[in-house]
Amino acid sequence: MTAENNSQKSPWELYYGPNLGYIEEMYEAFMKNPESVDQAFRDSFAKWGPPPSAGAFVSVHPPLVSGVSGTDSIKTIDPAFLKKIVDAGKLVRNIRTYGHLAADNDPLGLVAPPDTKLLEPATFKLSQDDLESIPASLIWEEAPESIRTGAQAIAHLKEVYTKSYGFEFGHIHAEDERIWLTRQAEIGMASKPMSAKERIALLERLVDVEQFETFLHRSFVGQKRFSIEGTDTLVPMLDEIVRELAHDGAKHILMGMAHRGRLNVLTHVLGKPYTAIFSEFHHSPNKEKDLFPSEGAMGINIGWTGDVKYHLGAHRSLKENETVETRISLANNPSHLEYVNPIVEGYTRAAQDDRSVAGYPKPDFGSAAAVLMHGDAAFAGEGIVGETLNFKKLAGYENGGTIHIIVNNRLGFTTESRDSRSTHYASDLAKGYEIPIVHVSADDPEACIAAVRMACEYRQKFHKDFLIDMIGYRRHGHNETDDPETTQPLVYQKLRKHPVVARIYAERLKEKGLLSEDQVAAIRQAGLSKLQAALDEVKQNDKEFKQPKMDEKSKRRKKDIVTSVPHKKLKEINEELLKWPDGFKVYEKLERILMRRATALEKGSKIDWGLAETLAFASILSDGTPIRLSGQDSERATFAFRNLVLHDVESNQTFSPLHKLPQANASFAVHNSPLAEASVLGFDYGYNVFSPETLVIWEAQYGDFANCAQVIIDQFITAGRVKWSQKSGLIMLLPHGYEGQGPEHSSAKLERFLLLAAEDNLTIVNLTSASQYFHLLRRQAAIINTDEARPLIVMSPKSLIRNPSVASDPTEFSHGQFKLVLEQPGLGQKPEQVERLIFCTGKMAIDIETALELKEGQAPDNWNWLHIVRVEQLYPFPKTDIEAIIKRFPNVKEVLWVQEEPQNMGAWNYVEPRIRARVSKETTVRYIGRPKRSSPASGFQYVHNMEQQRIISVALNRSTLTTTTKGENSHE
C-alpha cells in the first residue's frame, strides 16, 4: 500500500497492519544508513519524523517467499502466513461473540461444561508459535502496548471474555455503542480496579447482608421473609448504582423489585431501620400459634388493610454533597412480580418531565433514573417485561435508560430453567431491544461492581438501557417454610457445602493481605451487635397489639367544587383552538369539521362531546394543571372525534392547538401508545402517583381491552390506597356501549369495576351529556392533588359522541356543575300520576329518550305514568339523590332497572339491593335487559337490534306494569 503526502496530517496514519510494519523496517534502515532507502522515504522521514511505534508489532517479521527482498516483499508475503493472520482474526471474533458461553460465572457449577472448540486456536490450526509470530495489533487493533504478540492478545481476550464475565454485545446495531462496549470490556474494566478501602467496605456490606438474613432466621423461626441468600451481592450493586447515579446528578432513583430479597434491600439500601423490620415480624398476629406464619404486617395507619412486609416500598434521601440531594424510592409491589416495571418507568418519566410551561413536557433524562430488579423465570415468562422494554425508544415513555438486574437464582418457585423458558439465557428477551447484557457470578462481588460501573457509564453516555444478569442461587426454598429438596435434591446437596459469598470474599481479601482473620471476626461481631441491639429495643417496647378501628367518618364527597367557566373565557379559548400556523394545511374534510366549532358557543348552538372535552382540557391548562393523555390512537381518538394533533397534508408535520394556547399555564402531553394495555396503564398510573398534581388520563381503544390490564387495575389502581396509602387521581376512559359490534367491542366490564369498588376507592361514571363530561373532567382536575383524589373510571361513549341528544347548551358549561343523577326532561311533571320509575345509565338512557319521541323536549300527557332517571355516577352510589327522587313519587308501583348488558353483567347486581333498600315493601323492583349470558354481546347486528328494541319496548309499555317477562326477572 502507498499513500500520498498530506499537508494536514502525517502520512503514517494511512498505513496499518503489515504495511505499517514495512514502514518501520524502512525507518530502522534509514536510521542506520539513510542512503539505503529510497529518496521518497528519506524526504518523508525528514519531514514527518518516525512512524508511530506499533509497539505490538515488536520485531516480528512475516515470512517471505524465498529470494525476495526490498519493496517487493509486501506483495510476496507467504500466503500461508496471511491465512494464519485471517484465522487468528476469526478466533478473536469468536472469542468476542461466543466467549460468554464459556464464562466462569456459575457459582454452583450446575451447567454442563460448554463446547468451546470455537474459542480454541487448534480449531483454526493455529499453533502457539503461529500466534507468537503474529503482531498483536493485526488481530486486535487496540491492544495495549504491553501485549505485543498474537498469543498474548488471544490469552488476554480469553481471560476477559471467559473468566468472570459473559459479554453479549453483538446484537447492538449502533457501531459507536458496540465499539465503546467492546473497549470497556477489553481494557476499560481492567483499568479501574477497586482500591483496598473499597474492597474492605464491600466485604462489610456483604457481611451485613448475610447476618441480617441469618439473624431473622434464628430470631423469628418459621416466618417467611423470602431471603436474598445466594444473590447477596445485589445489595452492594445497588449501593454502587446509587453512588454512580447520584454522582452523575440524578435527583431521583426509582427502583422496582419483587419480594425476594426485598427486606434486605429495604434496610440496607433504603435505610429502613432494623427496629422497624423486626417490629413487623414481632407483631405478627399469630406469632404464638403453631400455624403457618402470618403474612400480616400490622400496625399500619388506621383504616388501611396494609400489605405483607415484603411487598412494601420505602423512600430515602441522601446528600451526595452539600447542595445536591438524591431521593431513592423502592416501589410497592404485589406478588405479581414484574408488574411493577411499568409503574417505576412512569415514576421515572414523571420525575424527569418539566410540566410548568405550555407544550409537551420537557424531560431531563439525567435528573432521574430507573433501576429494575427481575427474577430470572419472571423475566423470560411474564409478557409485561417485553411490553415495558418496548418503552425504550418511545417518545412518550422513554427515560434515558433503565438499569436492569436479573437476580438470577435459577428457579421459579420450584420450576427449573429448562421448564420455564425456551431461551438459553433468562436475559435473551433483551436482545430484541438491543440492550447490552453482562452475565456475572453473584459469588464474584468485584466483577458485579465492575459490571454496575459499566452499566452506569453506558447509560450516562448513550441514555439507553443496560442489563446485568447476576447468576446466583437460592439458599432456601421458595420461602423459609418450604423444603426445596423435594424437587431440587442435587442443587441443595451442593448448597449445603457451598460457602456464602461474604466468606468467599473474606478469604480472597485475606489471601491478598488486606485483612486478617481477627479483623474479619471484628466486622462480623460489630454487625451482630447492631442487630441484637435493635431486637432488644423492639422487645422492650413491645405492647399488646390492638386491632385498629376503621374510620367511620362519612365518605360523602364534597359538592362545593366550582367547575363552571365564564362564557367569555370559553369563547376566547375556542377561538384560539381554531388557529394554526401560516402555511399549515389541515386535511380538508377535517378542517370543515373543526371549523363548525366556531359558532358552537353562540346562543342556540350546541357543544358536542369532542369540543366539550377539548374545552375542558384547555380550561384545566389555563388553571395551571398539566395534563397527560395516552392510549392507542389517543391523538385523534379511536372514533376520530378528538383530533388534538393535526397533520399537514403535504409535509406530515404535526401541530396541536393546545400547545400554543395563550391561556395555557402548564404542559399538555398526548401520546399514541404502543399496542399494549397493562404496561401503558401501569406507566400512566406510576406517572400519576409520582406527579399527583398532573391530570393523567389513560384511554382504551375499546373498553374491553382493559381486560389485558387487569392486574394493574386489581393490584394497584383499586387497592393501592388501602394497601400502601398510594393516592391516585388517574382517569380511565373506557369506550362502552352495545351497538351490534360483537362481544369484544361492546362492554368495558362495568360490573367488574363495581365489584372492585369499596371503601370509597373509586369514582365510576356512565354519562349522557357533553356538559357532564366537561364538569367531570374539571372536577377531577380540582381534586387530584388532595385527599379527595380517587381513580376515575369513565364508561365513555362511542356512537353517542356524535349523537345530537348528548350535545349540551353552552350555558351548561358556564353555569352548571356535575350532577350525580339526571332526570329525563319532559317527564315527571305530575308526580302523583307516576306509576313506573325507570333507572338507567349511559347509552341505554339515550336509546330510551329517542324512543319517547319527545317534541321540543316535552312528552305528551300519555307518558305521565312514567318517569326516567339517569344514574350518571354509579360509585359512590348517589343514595341521597335517589332517595329524594323516589320520595317525590308516592304512587309508584314498580321501579325498573333497565340496562343493555346481560343480567349477570352491567350494574344490575350492584344497584338492585341499593334501590330495593330505598323503596317501600309494596313497590316492585325489576330488571329489564338481556338475560344472563357467558359472552358479553351478540356478534350479529340484527340480533342486537332485535334485543335492544325488545328491552325498550318492555320498559316503555304500560301493560307490563308489575308483570314478569320471561327471562327478564329470572334469578338463576
Compose a concise summary of this entry:
The protein has 972 residues and is of the alpha/beta class. The protein contains 32 helices and 26 strands.
Overall description:
The chain is of the alpha/beta class and 972 residues long. It has 32 helices and 26 strands. It has an eight-stranded mixed β-sheet. Strands 16-13-17-18-20-19-24 form a seven-stranded mixed β-sheet, sandwiched between helices. A five-stranded mixed β-sheet has the order 21-23-22-25-26, with helices on both faces. Helix 29 links the parallel strand 22 (836-840) and strand 23 (866-871). Helix 8 (196-219) packs across helix 19 (517-540) and helix 9 runs parallel beside helix 16 (445-462). The longest helix is centred in the N-terminal third of the chain and has 24 residues, at 196-219. It is elongated and about 120 Å long. The protein starts with 16 loop residues before the first helix and ends in a 17-residue tail after the last helix.
